[in-house]
Write a structure and sequence with these properties.
single chain; two-stranded antiparallel sheet; 2 strands; 49% helix; disordered N terminus
Length: 70
Amino acid sequence: MDEHTDGPADEHGDRRSRAAASERLRPASTPLYAECVLCRKPTEYPETTRGITLCPVCEWQEAQRTACSG
């Protein structure tokens, strides 16, 4: 009976450790994307981008707001 309860716990522990290892072993070429300052969705910009980062939708809406109406 003890073996049965130890089995799944070890299996779940293995899954957790594999997930943690995969995060640590993520290729350096896979960029992390910055989140939009308005809606917090991922943007097209890397996380290291300085300044205000907007997702494509918010960027388009901001352009519409600031466009010349004349």
